[in-house]
Amino acid sequence: MSGKSFISISNNQPLILVADDDKTMRLLLREFMEQEGYQVVEVNNGKQCLEAYADKKPDLILIDAIMPEMDGFTCCKELLQIARNNRAIALANYYDNGGSFDSTIISGLWGRTPILMITGLDDPASVDRAFACGASDFVTKPIHWAVLRQRVRRLLEQAQLYKQLEAANQALQKLANVDGLTGVANRRHFDQYLNSQWLSLAQEQAQLSLILCDIDYFKLYNDKYGHPAGDICLQRVAGVLSQSAEKIQGFVARYGGEEFALIMPYTSATGAVRVAASMQAGIRELEIIHTESGVSQYVTLSLGVGTTIPTFESSAHDLIQIADKALYQAKAQGRNRIILKQLQA
Prior knowledge:
Layout: E1 15-19, H1 23-35, E2 39-43, H2 46-56, E3 60-64, H3 72-96, H4 103-109, E4 115-119, H5 124-133, E5 137-140, H6 145-177, H7 187-204, E6 208-215, H8 218-225, H9 227-248, E7 251-256, E8 259-265, H10 269-286, E9 301-308, H11 316-332, E10 338-342
Parallel strand pairs: 1-2, 1-3, 3-4, 4-5, 9-10
Antiparallel strand pairs: 6-8, 6-9, 7-8
Helix pairs in contact: 2-3, 3-4, 8-9, 9-10
């Protein structure tokens, strides 16, 4: 007999994973937990516990300290390491996603499932070992069922509270990183992301490209149509740039005023110019009327493209400078054009 007993899982009741090699104890724990309104998955050793944890994502784990193949102490250590790995992956995904959080990332950031160890060992050394291995709490055998009930409830409530706090903290972090008008990243987040990519790509010796773009004659647009219309124009432009960034897994930000930036890791000069041309065409296709423009009847962009291979001897500011010079040249040469400059490593 395998010792595994899986049941169908709904979204309402917390799921408890019970790991114990004693079949009678598993049955007692299952019946008690189900009477308390919980769903239950059973396994009979630590290895099966790790498998069920990965497959079922339980809300709480009840684990016996002494089991064959892999005991509860070793299993706790493995679960703790999994939680640490999940957090590292979630943070990496956060930066790869340009600093945006989804439910998967938030779940990864709070990836620590509470563990309640059940043990017949109540000496101080065993208790210390249980907590050192990652257990959240413990109960001793023979089980005092009222105590178990309260500790399970407390651990589930704490876990839910921590998840809510984590989500709230990440929501606040997102607000701090997003431009309130356009919904793209703000200058603060742009600086953070560019610097992180610079260090990463310097280590890999991979290419990094940056586009700085400016809405042509935007001050005249505001003067003609008013600031509310100017805000709508900025939002529509940001929408096009975001679509371009999404296609290449780039990072778009409002750099300041009517100026936007697009960071493109692993992108050559040729690829960056191609993206810039796509952005320029996308803005033209919006056909936002701009009668005060000196280059078109519609809103247009001037774009400066900078490309380099980052090094530890240089800085991200060097890339910003060459992209800014390229943008300045594009505007000086008549606007509504793309200029490329490359920074030699």
